Amino acid sequence: MNNRYSNSCRRSDCEITDVGPQPFVINIEAAAKQNSNYRTALWTGKHLQATLMSIPVGGDIGLEIHPDTDQFLRIEQGNGTIRMGTGKENLSFQTCVSSGCAIFIPAGIWHNLVNTGNIPLKLYTIYAPPHHPRGTVHKTKADALAAEHQEQKIKSNQSTK
């Protein structure tokens, strides 16, 4: 069998970098557990993006909404609570999640995932279309918030020109 694509990683010690949009195979469970960054873009294509996340004990993603992006999350390690709803003050859906749980978040739904366990919450998330710039790495949530603020400033400046 001729494998013309060398971008594959099935071991748990692979370097995690965004290799999209090239074809790619990875043990995503091992990669999610290995990731210690708050967010690491794993693969970014034209219509889809996969990121790895590690949420510290007591931490959360932060209440957010993606108006034009559907999102899928899969918990690989730890315990948490997901809250979702149609408004910031109307998070009518809430449930506990743990390893193996899949979470589907439609575009336009407010949501927050909180780590309620005693170990980092390890997960991967898939966005369609991509939500973060290719190659994104945020070591902490504070880094992610600062980057998002900077992206909003740039977009705001571009729209006023």
Question: Mind sketching the topology for me?
Answer:
Elements: E1 8-9, E2 25-26, H1 28-34, E3 39-44, E4 49-55, E5 70-77, E6 79-85, E7 93-98, E8 102-105, E9 110-115, E10 121-128, E11 137-138, H2 141-159
Parallel strand pairs: 1-2
Antiparallel strand pairs: 3-4, 3-11, 4-10, 5-8, 5-10, 6-7, 6-9
Domain Cupin type-2: 52-127
Protein name: Cupin domain-containing protein
Pfam families: Cupin_2
Keywords:
globular; single chain; six-stranded antiparallel β-sheet; 161 residues; 36% strand; alpha+beta; 11 strands
Detailed description of the structure:
InterPro entries: Cupin_2 (IPR013096), Flavonoid_dioxygenase-like (IPR052538), RmlC-like_jellyroll (IPR014710), RmlC_Cupin_sf (IPR011051). Pfam families: Cupin_2 (PF07883). This is Cupin domain-containing protein. It comes from Faecalispora sporosphaeroides. The N terminus is likely disordered. Strands 8-5-10-4-3-11 form a 6-stranded antiparallel β-sheet. The chain has a 3-stranded antiparallel β-sheet with strand order 7-6-9, with no helix packed on it. A two-stranded parallel sheet has the order 1-2. The N and C termini lie far apart (54 Å). The protein has 161 residues and is α+β, with helices and mostly antiparallel strands.
